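Bench notes, afternoon.
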Amino acid sequence: MNHFELFDLPAAFNIDAAVLQQRYRKLQQTLHPDRFANGTEREKLLAVQRTAQLNDAYQTLRSPLSRAEYLLALRGIELAHEQTTVQDPEFLMAQMEWRERIATIKDWSTLESAYKDLQEEMRDLQMVLEQQLNQNADQDAAMTVRKLKFMHKLHHELERIEDII
């Protein structure tokens, strides 16, 4: 059973986050190991394993980036441990510009501006990704996921800068 089936959701990029959370909480109550406290050792072990699987599935589907990677994996395209880099010259130039921009952040106003611009770019990429996944353009979607991964790394770098400023 895949993660989407576990939550009785369609295997799609665009899912209802509220429905996912509601079904997660319901399954969490049903499968929680405390409900099997008086059971056999095997039942207790299975409850722990099912809860771990449930938590993993929820975390995967909750994040758009990991959900996209999971969808691609279901379609036979594994991105988790690959070393493929983005060969798009425009995107490579944008990466360099972002690195330069991050290096110059010294105050809150430039940090806030960078956050705003990055969120906008990530939102745009996510819309492109959704279209690619809906059209089964899996190789293009895989490249877009790689780009989004880079954008998420930038976001984490901005968070680290925020802690310093």
